[in-house]
Amino acid sequence: MGYLTIQWYPGHMAKARRIMESRIKQVDAVIELVDARLPISSRNPVLQQLSTRKPGMIVMTRDDLADPEATQAWTDYFAEHDMIAVPANILSGEGLGRVKDALHRVTSEKVNRDRQRGLKRTIIRAMVVGIPNVGKSSFINRTARKAAAKTGNQPGVTRQEQWVKMGDIELLDTPGVLWPKIDTPEQGLRLAVSGAIKEQIYHVEEAAAYFVAYASRRYPEQLKQRYKLAELPTVDWTDLQTVWPQIAPVFEAIGRYRGMLARGAEVDIERVSRMLIKEVQDGVLGRLTLEWPDDDVTTDEA
């Protein structure tokens, strides 16, 4: 297996981008949702271009799944770059009040200009954007306290834009949009592990191997405890072919511990891989972050 090849810019995404470009004139601000576990890799450069045309802010969703220390490091990183980033737990609603406050802050200059021109502002309109499965519809539903937008745990649930009102704010929900080409193989693998892209278009074994290599450096104890591993080599990821000899014994040990055997009592590597990815996405291994500011993702992949 070589590094994953993702063809992820289907027609409905291109259409969604055109719709958002036409709607940008109707809003006062852009709220960009990113996954708190990978705040750089889950930022769509296409959407960032849209954000430069309006005041913007970042909401880091899935805060309940992310490493709290890493989330604070990312909040500080964005602040140092003059960006407001608010962590939010969509399930509990924690942080959503700060989102409203931040939205009023980023639009205050425009509101004041309108008032000076004699325009009375009663509603602030914001476009909610992000990649698939980052939680846009759930964020809107929780913020508006009603099930106004269709939600799901699969990429690509929202296909059409819709407005949702909450007090003096109107939010425009939009379809999740990916970009034509990933910058690096590692970025694509992080997106795969997080659940941002459909399993059918990447190699699950490669994504799982990448995660094990990453976790061997960042979260070795969580891997050892979850899968009763006596040993766990520290692996620096380069590509699957190079690191597999170091990682294969880990997959063997996990497979035998979980009883994931194929014919001939051999470990079913694909089954182990799917289980690993699912448990990461479900938060079973604990709160994990897939990239930190000191991982060089900010300079190489931003």
Account of the protein in words:
With 302 residues, the protein is α/β, with parallel strands linked by helices. It has helices at 11-23, 45-51, 68-80, 96-116, 136-144, 185-194, 204-218, 220-227, 240-258, 269-282, 297-300; strands spanning 29-35, 56-61, 85-87, 124-130, 162-166, 169-173. Strands 3-2-1-4-6-5 form a six-stranded mixed β-sheet, with helices on both faces. A hairpin with a 2-residue loop joins strand 5 (162-166) and strand 6. The longest helix is centred in the middle third of the chain and has 21 residues, at 96-116. The two termini are 27 Å apart.
Task: Quickly describe the structure.
The chain is built from 11 helices and 6 strands. By secondary structure, it is α/β, with parallel strands linked by helices. Strands 3-2-1-4-6-5 form a 6-stranded mixed sheet, sandwiched between helices.
